[in-house]
Amino acid sequence: VLPRPSLGPDLRRLFARMGPGVIGAGVTQLNLVVGTVLATLIAEGAVSYLYYADRLSQLPLGVVGTAVGTALLPMLSSQLKTSPSDALITHNRAIEAALLLALPAAAGLAALAEPIVTVLFVRGAFGLAEAKATAQAVAAYSLGLPAFVLVKALTPGFLAREDTATPVKLGIVAIAVNLALNLALMKPLGHIGIALGTSIAAWVNVALLWGTLGRRGHFALDARARLTLPKLVLVSAVMGGVVWAAQAYMPRGTLGLVLLIALGGLAFAGLALLTRAASVADLKRAFRK
């Protein structure tokens, strides 16, 4: 009889530490799964609308949020051992870099949801009515996109201090809030209510993570971030308004969408430089990373 395989003590400790971290970092995905399950209880097609909308919101989340979280954790872990003040500066710059990309992405998705969905998905049985319903979910998810990214940027503040339990506990609260909001909003708003509830729950998760780090003295916005972040919000909102208004003057289809995206990129870069929300070096560094 062969001996029963077992994990060594080091491997058991590794899995014990990884498990809570994976759960804490995956709150967004868990909330999306909850929404998809609830969507089966409402109108036909709701699951598809949420699925396609989620695919679009996951693109900037994967590119920006995952990249920031992956790069930030080892940097914070190293700096906390040698210079906590440097770790705080690094965390601030990571938040800035994340929002430098996430805020305009959210504004662009919200403003151009319908043309994006139409160009990408309208064919065969997926018609204009389905595109409109999906675009409504995209707009609702876009409201939570900066929060989805911030969760990825804030969680390393706990993991770098070998605290894997707190993000899990706070994540469970966010999942409960998501479930309650989904149930409350799905009846009056249908699939849009589910997407909106998920976005609000993401902001609740951000507030819990940010507040806990702040109370422990582990994170606070420095002077540069307090000056820069409101400017990024304003510039992104103006950019979103510009591309939304410009739709009336652009051709339909792929060409029009490409022109609108290019216009949005130029408008954001120009306004960011004009208001000093970002420098040329910041823009190059953010897009390169």
Walk me through what this model shows.
By secondary structure, the protein is an all-alpha fold. It has helices at 9-25, 27-39, 46-82, 84-111, 113-121, 128-154, 156-159, 165-189, 191-215, 223-246, 254-274, 280-288. Helix 1 (9-25) packs parallel to helix 8 (165-189), helix 2 packs antiparallel against helix 9 (191-215) and helix 5 (113-121) crosses helix 6 (128-154). The radius of gyration is 21 Å and the shape is flat. The chain starts with 8 loop residues before the first helix and ends with a helix. The relative contact order is 0.14. The model has no long low-confidence stretch (mean pLDDT 86).
Task: Describe the SSE topology.
Layout: H1 9-25, H2 27-39, H3 46-82, H4 84-111, H5 113-121, H6 128-154, H7 156-159, H8 165-189, H9 191-215, H10 223-246, H11 254-274, H12 280-288
Helix pairs in contact: 1-8, 2-3, 2-8, 2-9, 3-4, 3-6, 4-6, 4-10, 4-12, 5-6, 6-9, 8-9, 10-11
Nutshell version of this structure?
The chain is mostly helical and 289 residues long. The protein is built from 12 helices and no strands.
Key attributes of the depicted protein:
single chain, 289 residues, mainly alpha, 83% helix, flat
Q: Strand content of the residues, in percent?
A: under 5%
What low-confidence regions span 5 or more consecutive residues with pLDDT below 50?
none
Task: Kindly state the percentage of residues in helix.
Answer: over 70%
Treating each run of at least 4 consecutive H or I residues as one helix, how many helices?
12
Query: N-to-C SSE series?
Result: HHHHHHHHHHHH
Largest sheet: none
Straight-line N-to-C gap: 53 Å
Going by helix content, strand content and strand pairing, the class is: mainly alpha
Task: Tally the beta strands.
Answer: 0
3D shape: flat
Tell me the radius of gyration. Answer: 21 Å
